[in-house]
Design goal:
243 residues, alpha+beta, three-stranded antiparallel sheet, three-stranded mixed sheet, 5 helices, 6 strands
């Protein structure tokens, strides 16, 4: 028998006892003797003491920690080999102000707004599967035929909400919070595209390839193609926000 059933039994027994004592007190008040008054007083004291004991017993039973059962199952959807290199890392703080105004009954304005600080770490690099080059074994040279632009390989975001204001008929929903996070993340990504991260990533990759080929006694013929490619490709986030 669980604690809930115990509590139901205790409260039922208490109600029955109260009804019995009430009826008994009513019958006793019909007599005017001293003994009957003393009996009433003793019954009242017993009632108070019994109620206190029942209350403490009920608190003790409900004070035990709850039993929590957890389970999880991990399923790997797919795996494949990739060759992606991170060549630049950027940290950004974006202040995102969200405000929405609606009209109740088409004439009563209702507003909700929130100020969100988006903190993000963005990793920028290259996907070597998109590289195309030509190797001249005789002259020990490598020529880049197609060198892709640097791209965002990973984003880690954290959201802190400030100055949240909402009204009773215009509350924030899960969809609103998800939209705020998506818009805030999109703004951070746009800021990263306009920052110096592409230049830093390109310079790091140029240094890496030059030194790597030099270790094999090869010369990178058109290293300038790396520096010229300082534009982010379209970012297609693979992760989806879940509120």
């Amino acid at each position: 028998m669980n604690f809930k059933k115990y509590k139901i039994i205790l409260w039922s027994a208490g109600i029955l006892i109260l009804l019995f004592i009430g009826f008994f007190l009513y019958r006793m008040t019909q007599s005017e003797s001293i003994n009957s008054m003393m009996t009433i007083i003793m019954l009242l004291l017993g009632l108070v003491l019994g109620g206190l004991i029942a209350f403490l017993a009920s608190k003790k039973m409900t004070a035990e920690p709850p039993v929590v059962t957890e389970s999880s199952h991990t399923i790997a959807e797919s795996m494949r080999k990739v060759f992606k290199v991170v060549s630049a890392e950027g940290h950004f703080n974006e202040i995102y102000n969200y405000e929405e105004t609606t009209k109740l009954f088409n004439f009563i304005p209702s507003k909700k707004k929130a100020l969100v600080i988006v903190q993000a770490k963005i990793l920028v690099g290259y996907d070597f599967e998109k590289f195309q080059w030509e190797v001249d074994e005789q002259n020990r040279k490598v020529k880049l035929l197609n060198f892709p632009a640097p791209e965002i390989l990973s984003t880690e975001t954290d959201y802190k909400y400030y100055n949240i204001e909402e009204q009773f008929f215009n509350l924030f929903s899960k969809e609103d919070l998800a939209k705020i996070q998506q818009n805030g993340k999109r703004q951070v990504i746009e800021a990263a595209k306009k920052s110096h991260l592409p230049e830093v990533a390109a310079e790091q990759m140029r240094t890496l390839l030059t030194e790597l080929l030099a270790g094999k006694n090869f010369f990178l013929e058109n290293a300038g193609a790396i520096s010229e490619s300082k534009k982010f490709i379209d970012y297609q986030p693979s992760d989806k926000l879940i509120s």
